Structure formats: structure tokens, C-alpha cells
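Methods: example folding runs. The two proteins below were folded one after another, and each record is reproduced exactly as written to the output file, sequence line first and C-alpha cell line second.
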Amino acid sequence: MDLEFQTILYDGSAFLESALPAIPKSTAVYRIFDLHGQLIVLNKTSNLSHRLERFFGPHSERVRDLDLRQITSRIEFVRTFSPFETAYALYLERRKHFPGTYRRMKTFRYFTLLKINRKQRFPRVYASRQIKAGVDYFGPFTTRGQFARMKTALERTFKLRPCQFNIRGNDPHPDCLYFQMHTCSRPCNGDIDRAGYLEDVLRAMAFLQGRDDAIRQPWVEEMTRLAADMKFEEAETIKKKVERLQRARQEQQSLKDAFSDLQSFNFVIVLPSDTSSQVKIVIVRGGAIVAFRTHETATLRETLQSELSHSFDNNLPAPNREWLYDEFCLVCTFMVKSLQSVQFIRYEGNAEDTAVAIEKRMKRTNARRPPSIRSE
């Protein structure tokens, strides 16, 4: 995203009369610099003109407004046209100017991720607020309580180990409560090998994504085969697995039906622009914002299709892992608290179909606008 800031050189004697009337009364991200060229204010506002009037207009002792009249050299601002664009622009600027502390500024909400590291011999389920290469992540979880309920459901349903031992196999821990109660598959005791345990991990990942049928169908087929072979005890064991799966899904109905894995977190976000003849498009690949550009609505299908093909079909440079987590959380902030001005379209792998769908959506949106807005 290329931010083109407009600059106003501050002159205290003429600012209110000459400069302020030309400043837009709209949403913006702004920067204020002192007499030595140092950044002293970086923030957003829904009414830039009003905010600057508070800073540089007449002050009263009763009003606790920031008085910058004697120390300002210049003001810079960039207009934004949606809450998403405002949050992203402010995030980029804060990350640029305050690389060590920008997360403390709470530009948007940060979420918990569910982490499964299949590089471990017998993987566990973790909570995480950072992203590392080669690890599976799912989310967003809006609260730690929501994460804890899902973690418990995965461990009980698929017998994943909750213990913190370094399990290598054939090293039983009889003093472990989970070992005694048989609440896990006891890989430490050799009751299950690594291949079988990883199959359970893959089922747990499918459950997270809401793909219950992909788990249930093989179990039902195996249960039917065992029953036909008169192996009723083995069939009963499979039946209990199916029942645990159904119970777990019913218990999770208060949560979202499914959680996205980071690798397939691919979206196209449609945002408004300053005129109906243009639209702003954000492309999210694997949780990272890889493109943020303005497109002409008249040629939207062609330009967007090309952009999507470039973003998803090519091997792009690996994103910065810290920034990836930030951008994933920024996008999820607007998914959890949906706004009419921010439209999400999941990218399913076909650039042409996605571009056509967005073009049709834009035509319907413009048709509903008042004539005065459509004619801009």
C-alpha cells in the first residue's frame, strides 16, 4: 500500500484563516512534526479539520486539548475511505516509525491462534500469538476461554496428549493423570505409534476446519465392514469414536462452525473509494496482505483477474513472520466485527470466477446508490 501524504507547512499566524478551510472534514491518518522535524503526533481521526482546529485553534484552560501551536513545523495527512483502510494505513505508519513498540498502541485487536507442530514426534495443541515457519495455525480465537474449550474438545475427541512430557515412545509415565485415566492414546506407553497418532492429529485439524464428513465417513465404512465380519467389539470401538465426534461438534455450536488454517486463509476484500468509478481491492494470501490497490470499475474484471493471478499463482517472497501475524489479526478484526463497508470474498483458486463475482457485486452496489453518488 503506497501512502501519498499531503503536506501543509504550518504558519501559526495564517493557519486558521488560509490552511484550515482547505483541509477535508473526513477520515484521515495524520502526522505532525515539530520544529526539528521530529514526529510528535501520529494518529487517525474521523474529522481531520475538526481535529486540527482543536490542536491549533484558540485554547481554554478548562479544555485539556493538546496545544501544538508553538512547536509545529508541518502537518501531513492521507485521506482514507473505510475503517479497514484507516486501520491498515495507521498500522503501516506506526510499524514504520515505532518498530519496537507499535503493538502496544492497540491499532487493532490481536487474537489467539491454535498451534499444532507436526514436526514433533507426538504433537500437542498449543495457544500462540506468534507465527513460525513449518507449523500449522488455526484461528482466530476471540478469547482464551474459546480456545480452551476447543483444545479440550480436540484432546477428548481425538485422544491427543495434553501432557507436557517430551514423549519419544516406550517411555511410560504411570504417574501422569492422563495416563491413568486413559484420556489420551498413551503414546508414551507405546499404545499407539507415531503414524497412527499423526492420523488422529490430521482428523483434529479437519474438525477445526469443519470437515466432519471427511472424518466420519471412513469410520462409518470401517464400522460397517467390521460388523459384516462379525467383529462387533472392534465395530463398537469405532462407533464410540463417531459418537465422540458428534458430541464434540454439538458442544462447539456456541463457537464458529469452523476455523481457518493460516495457509489457506485467502481472501479478496472490497473497500469503497472516494468515487463510484473506482474501488479499492485488498488481496490476502495465507493471512498476509500482499496487495492493496485502487481499480477502475470500468475495467475491474481484467485488472483484478491479472492481479489475482499474480498474487496467488506466483511464488511470492516469504512474509515477515511478525508482520504476518499482525496482518492476519487486522483482517480478522473486521471479520469478527463485520462492517457493511468491508466485503470479504474467499478466494477458491479461480482468478476469473472471483473477478467476475466481484464485478457483479460492484454493479449491484452501485445500482443501489443514490443518483447523486453514482454520478460522481
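Second run, written to the same file directly after the first:
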Amino acid sequence: MNSDSNHSPGVSKCVEAAKILSAEREEALKRAQTMKFDTIAVHGLYTVEEALRRNRGSVIEPLYLSTSQAYADADELEAALAYLTPSWCYTRIANPTTQYLEWTLALLEGYRTGYETSCLVTSSGMSAIAAAVDPFLVKQKSGPEEINFVSSIQIYGGTYQYFSVRKAKEQGIEARWVQNPDDLEEWKARIDGNTRFLYMEMPSNPQQSFADLKSLVDLAHSWGIPFIIDSTCATPALMRPIEYGADVVVHSLTKSITASGLAIGGAVISRRPIITNVKNDNPNFKENFAEYVKLWPFRDTGPAASPVNALFALNDLRTLRSRMELVSRNCQIVAGYLAGHDRVSRVDYLGLPACRLHEVAKKYMKLVDSDDGSGREVNCYGHLMSFTVDGPPENARKVFDSFKLIHRATDLGRIKSLATIPAISTHLQQGEEVRRLANIPPQLIRLCVGAEHPDDVIADLKQALAVL
């Protein structure tokens, strides 16, 4: 909360009353931080006390559909809109249902990392990426005219468009692309004193790109800049980048976290504090980045999540760990089958020992709170993979069109298995040359394995490949 100096005595009373609520929330936070991942996913900060005092005993977090909050008097209104007291005031800025989701996501992403975290939930994964990177790309009054950022080229097609067209082409901010993100020297060669951040999607969609996360974080911090990571496909159940010092984590909540496929959303989770070379007069910019974005730039641009979508995401989140364990196991089996098929020339799945990036992924991708019998967490690699069909691009289309169980869709992370051909869908706008650099051939099929029995998914793949 901000200082309440220069405000009326009535406002000061509101601030004092709010301190009691803040103390209760802080106590609930400390209690939650002692709990296991699954317990946090189920309860978040929605305590028994919160249910009884504020929500008439509702066991499940209520859905607040109202667009705005009413206030008792002018003093309470002033205190709220000056950010002197906890308030949600207007759903474009905040909403109680959305806040329950934000608190839970912050706790899960920060789970046993040793860092405090904060979260902003947005209307989509792309709005989360924009909210995460834009504050670092503001040109400084006394700074250089030419600024840049460095990103892996192996990223979601929409992210590439945002970086290459909206930032580079339209705003003149240079996007410097790393073609081989597991090569630290390639990152080093693209950084200079005008670089604002490093960005990577890990594991990437659809190529399963991966790198030594800690080395990249250390490299970014050696230049005084943040490391921003899209960890959508891992989710905090399999990897929490903040544990290794990552500054900002973004998620498309639409994907694995909201596996039901009933909602769209995004999230920005920041470590407290972040590293940055950007000068900003607001102390929260470094100390509490996600909250800064929420209370200032975000309130002006307005990409707020629908409370209905927030509730759907919150409910799916409760079973995240067990669900990611199941779909990872299923995907491992399916990937093994495809790796042995004579009409498949390549399988990209980090769980396969033959995968070039298997060993580095093995260091980081582990099922939280699991035990292999010797006290070590069990490796799990998620439910996204890709495979390249042997022969010309027409062969991939024939196989794709023959699926009977697997849905043909551009989505991923569903409880149902889904497939797409990225070259003609999610990465179409990149163009052939960029797809070549990003290792996305036209024969590549992206497959996200769901919760079906893997034998049935394999049977569908078998009959589809049999058309060749």
C-alpha cells in the first residue's frame, strides 16, 4: 500500500482498518508456504476464515461477476483508488475471483524456491507476454536511441509475430534471434549494453527446445538484465524457473493449467525483486514487478481476464500435479512408440534418452513433491511432443487427416489428445525461411497427449500412419 500522507483523517482510518486485513492475509500466506504443492493448489489463500467472514461460508471461491466495487463513503473510495488499501474497485484492474487465482499461481510458481513472488492474471497468454516485456522496452529519456532484446527463435508463432512485427518492425526495437538456444556462446554474442532482457520458451512449442536455465539466468544477470521465460508447457508442477533465479515467468493459462479447454487466460509471475537496467521512478517496478504492471500499465491498457475464465482456471489448477504426472507418463509411452515407427523420421520429446536435449532437460524437469524411492524427485517431461513424418509434406497431411481419436486443433494442453501441423497453422505467419531457422519442417506434426489410455492413442496413430 502507498503512504497515506496528505490525505484526510477519514482516509487514514480506512488505512488503519486495512492493515488488519493485510495482517490476516500475511498470516494466511505464511501458513500456506508451509504446505505441500497439492494443498496450495486446492486452497491457495482462500481460507476457512475468508469463506466464513466474507463469502457466507462458500467452500469454493465465489464468482464475482460485478464489474465494480461499491464504497461506504468518499474516504473509503479515495483510499482505494489511491492504492492505500486492498481493493478491487473495477474488474479491469482487479477482481476478487481473479485475485484468488493470482495468489494461488504466485504460491505455486514460488513453491520452495526461496523467493517471494507475485502474479498478474491476464486475458490470454499473448496479453501476458505483452504485459511482461513491454515495460522493459520503454525508451529512456537519457538512454540510447537504439535498444534491443535477445530471444530464442524457437518460440510460439504468435510470440514471434509480436516480437518481429509489433516490436521490431512497427516500433524499431531490435529483436536479436538465437537460433540454437542451448548454445550459451550464441546468446553471449547477441548481448550488448543496450539489451533489455533475454527471453526463452522452455520447453518450446513445437520443437521441444531447451537450455541450461541457470546458465542463461546467470548470463542475463551479469549484464544487469532480467531473464524472462515462457514456461507454459512445463507448468509449476514440472519446473519452477524462479528457483534458478528467473525474474519473470509467463504462462498461457489456456493450455496445460486449464486442461478442460473451457477458458482462456494468461499469467505473469515475477520474482521479488527482479534484476533490470531500466530506470523507473516507481519502486515497485523492481521490488514487485507483477504488481507494478497490474496497478499501473495494465490498468491503462486493460487486458483483464474474465472472472468466469479465472474460476475455470482455478478449478483446473487444483489437480495440476497429478494431471501433469498422468499426461507426462502417457506422452512418454506414445513418444516411445513413434520413435520406433518406420514411417517416422524424427521424434522430438525431451523424455526420450535419444533426444539431444534430454540430459539438460533432466536437470530441471521434475514432478514436484515426488519421490523415486531414494529421496529424489521423478523426472517428468510434459505432454507436448512432435514427430516428423517420413517423405514429402503431403504424407504428414495424409496422416493428420486420418486421425479418428486425436482431434485436429491448434490448441494444446487439453485433457484430450490434440494435433496440428505447425507449418500451416500456429507458425504459418512466420514464413518458410524463419520456420527453417526454427526447425519446423512442413512434415512435422505437433502432438499433445491427453489423459486417454496411451494404448488407444497409439492405436489411432498406428492406423493413421498405415495410410502411407
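Comment on the second run: The CA atoms of residues 417 and 450 lie 4 Å apart.
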